[in-house]
Specification:
heterotrimer; A alpha+beta; B mainly alpha; C mainly alpha; A: alpha+beta; 2 domains; 5-stranded antiparallel β-sheet; C: Ammonium transporter fold; 4% strand
């Protein structure tokens, strides 16, 4: 359509390039302006949502507590730990610690939360995001598997097929890699708890 | 009002983006593992289509032909980003399941296709209607596909178990990519079968009337 | 039969197809009977369901679409039999029926019937089932534990391949079961006292069947030999225990390698027409099987490897089928 307009009144090539550039620039500038307005409008809501989501996830592994993020010591030794949260119950006593963890699973990165109560017992594990195979690794995100970790002592866990006694974790059938990935991540949280937090720091 | 009817018929049936144009296959195959995801993706795309069609139709006299593609993409990307931020802030549950695919609406061929083929040549009202009905046609296809895959692959619909494991073992492959292709292929076959039958019936009717 | 080089579709009269299929069934008899013997009643039910439903689906499809009924050529029965032998002897009796539906209707008939399908129907159905019901399809009753009784619910046990994958140690020809009592001897894997799919457990029975097929000139040597050679080299060089012959022997006698090399990869409509092409196909199958077994998520890779190579067959034929004198190659 505007090719027709330019055929009607021929102008130099340079003028056309400048004109096109300016129009495109105007469109992008308006778009940028619009986006910054929307961004400032939604920024607070998004931040609030993220905290709600985080607290929901943490409460799933350490119920009835409020959380405060604490610093990760020796972060380079604990690559799988993404965040540590100190949990206080309603009376203000220490309820335990919740960990945000990531590890490489079979289908990609698994993000999970794990809680260790003040008494040194694993209070829960929850998968937050994963891309494991449905029917196999994805079964890690079922209550059946989560229950297998719950209540274990905060000592190193071992993945064993067909045995869930003591510190053994019964592997999901056909999904040893996923089971090991989740357990290894939880083990790192346990190691951190034992080395950095338990001494009453 | 004929333009409304015309656009509705084109978007939902005759030019259906999925069944006839076979555009936007990436979201069609990737997000339809459940009904709710299909509806969510379809409606999100509809919103973007409506916005981009209206704006591009309004700007059709201003945008120079030589830079129209980047201009279209900027308009589309702006709407997608706005939608992305709004969903993230206010409908987090939908954002969780669609999150990764929302930015991909930018490269959904349906949106650019309608901008190029329709909005840049037609008035604002017609373009708006075109956006809405193309979006709804897309939503319809994604919803049906999501339904087939969720029932077969998980025994559920809208996340509610309708076929318990005692009587039905979910065929997990329908939740995965190969199952998406199979279900889509079957849907295209049914659509074409019905279309051919309609044409044949119409032909027979004409012959009868002619004699 | 295979020396005739022609472009698809491969039209054969009913009688010759029937003769070939009858020989394939004869060749599968030892493996089938052995599967019945070690896995008992459940194995018989699974195989019977797979065969009968495959024939029934072929009949119904052809009846419904008013096509000539070709169940007398026995090809549907062979597909059903191969599928049944590729299943675990479990108790989900809808599995063989659903598998036969996928094999016969989706993979074979929708693409035009015998000779037109581009994938091995039995294997494609097995892959469909494996992906859909991964847990069930990888849980095998273990004959060593059930004592080969005629039991419906066998105890599930790990196969040699699963043990090799998890890095269980090999000691003096025995695959250690770790904390469990006993171990798996190489002779168990050779004669067929291990867990696995119904028809794949006995290496001896499969070798007998394969030898019969080659003797009767139903199949040629190229695919099995090339498959064997490339797989062996890959396993010796890149395996968890490089240059360990016992380790290699476990890999050769366990899982679907022999069943795949003799009966699956050699399927007429999904393998190359020339000897050279068949060697390429065999090498590809061996490489892919080794890659999947060593680095993939599943312990077993034979079926996926053959399916992937099925897709290359048209390309292989395109470059290797000789043109007649004065003829022009289609480019």
């Amino acid at each position: 359509m505007s090719n027709q307009t330019l055929e009607q009144k021929p102008k130099s090539e340079v003028f056309l390039i400048i004109k096109n550039t300016l129009i495109l620039f105007a469109i992008t500038a308006i778009a940028g302006l619009l986006l910054s307005i929307v961004n400032s409008m939604t920024a607070d809501a998004i931040a609030a949502q993220k905290i709600i989501q985080r607290d929901n996830a943490l409460n799933a592994v350490l119920p009835d507590a409020s959380f405060e993020e604490i610093k990760i010591e020796k972060a380079e030794e604990y690559q799988r730990i993404q965040g540590i949260y100190q949990a206080k119950d309603s009376a203000g006593n220490l309820a335990g610690y919740a960990f945000m963890l990531t590890n490489k699973g079979y289908g990609g990165t698994i993000t999970l939360a794990a809680g260790i109560s003040a008494g040194g017992v694993i209070s829960g594990m929850d998968i937050i995001t994963h891309s494991e195979t449905p029917g196999l690794g994805a079964n890690a995100d079922t209550d059946k598997f989560k229950e297998k970790l719950k209540g274990k002592q905060a000592e190193t866990l071992t993945v064993v097929k067909g045995n869930n006694d003591g510190q053994n974790v019964d592997a999901l059938s056909g999904a040893t890699i996923t089971s090991a990935a989740v357990t290894d991540a939880v083990n790192e949280a346990i190691a951190y708890y034992n080395n950095q937090l338990k001494g009453g720091k | 009002m004929s333009i409304l009817k015309d656009r509705a018929k084109a978007g939902l049936i005759d030019d259906n983006p999925t069944f006839v144009q076979v555009l936007g296959m990436c979201p069609t195959l990737a997000v339809t593992s459940s009904v709710i995801n299909g509806i969510g993706m379809g409606l999100s795309t509809t919103v973007v289509l409506l916005g981009s069609n209206v704006v591009i139709s309004l700007l059709r006299k201003i945008i120079p032909a030589k830079v129209r593609i980047p201009a279209f993409i900027v308009v589309i990307a702006t709407f997608v980003t706005i939608l992305d931020l709004l969903l993230q802030g206010f409908i987090p549950s939908l954002y969780d399941s669609l999150g990764l695919f929302i930015p991909l609406i930018v490269v959904n061929c349906i949106v650019l296709g309608r901008a190029e083929a329709f909005a840049s040549k037609n008035g604002v009202l017609a373009s708006a209607l075109d956006g809405i009905f193309m979006g709804l046609g897309f939503t319809m296809a994604l919803t049906i596909l999501g339904m087939i895959r969720e029932i077969l692959g998980a025994g559920q619909i809208f996340g509610i178990t309708i076929l318990p494991e005692a009587i039905y073992q979910p065929i997990t492959i329908f939740l995965l990519a190969p199952g998406a292709f199979m279900a889509l292929g079957a849907m295209l076959a049914v659509y074409n079968y019905m279309k051919i039958r309609k044409v044949n019936l119409a032909k027979q009717g004409k012959e009868v009337a002619g004699e | 039969m295979l020396n005739i080089v022609s472009s698809s579709p491969h039209v054969r009269d009913n009688a010759s197809t029937r003769n070939i299929m009858r020989d394939v069934i004869i060749a599968l008899v030892p493996a089938t009977l052995w599967g019945f013997y070690v896995f008992g009643l459940n194995a018989i039910i699974n195989v019977a369901l797979a065969v009968s439903s495959a024939v029934l689906f072929e009949y119904l499809y052809q009846k419904l679409l008013k096509k000539p009924i070709t169940i007398n050529d026995l090809s549907a029965a062979v597909t059903g039999l191969l599928l049944g032998l590729n299943l675990p002897s479990g108790h989900y009796y809808f599995i063989p029926v659903l598998g036969s539906f996928v094999a016969i209707v989706v993979v074979k008939q929708l693409y035009g019937g015998l000779g037109q399908n581009f994938m091995n129907p039995a294997l494609a159905a097995r892959a469909f089932l494996l992906v859909s019901f991964a847990g069930y399809m990888t849980t095998w009753p273990n004959p060593a534990q059930t004592g080969r009784f005629w039991s419906i619910d066998g105890v599930s046990g790990a196969t040699p391949l699963a043990l090799l994958k998890t890095g269980k140690m090999l000691e003096a020809g025995v695959l250690s079961l770790g904390n469990e009592a006993g171990g798996i001897w190489l002779s168990d894997a050779f004669f067929g006292f291990v867990g696995g799919c119904i028809g794949e457990v006995s290496a001896l029975a499969l070798i007998l069947g394969g030898a019969y097929l080659i003797y009767r000139k139903i199949i040629t040597w190229q695919i099995p030999v090339a498959f064997f050679a490339s797989f062996t080299i890959m396993m010796l060089v890149f395996g968890q225990n490089p240059w360990d012959l016992t380790y290699l022997a476990f890999h050769l006698t366990s899982g679907g390698f022999l069943l795949g090399a003799f009966f699956m990869a050699t399927d007429y409509s999904t393998s190359p027409m020339t000897g050279k092409g068949q060697i390429i196909m065999g090498i590809g199958c061996g490489l892919l099987t080794a890659l999947i077994r060593l680095f993939g998520g599943y312990p077993e890779g034979v079926s996926f490897a053959i399916l992937i190579m099925n897709l290359f067959v048209p390309l292989i034929d395109h470059y290797l089928v000789p043109t007649s004198f004065g003829g022009k190659r289609n480019e």
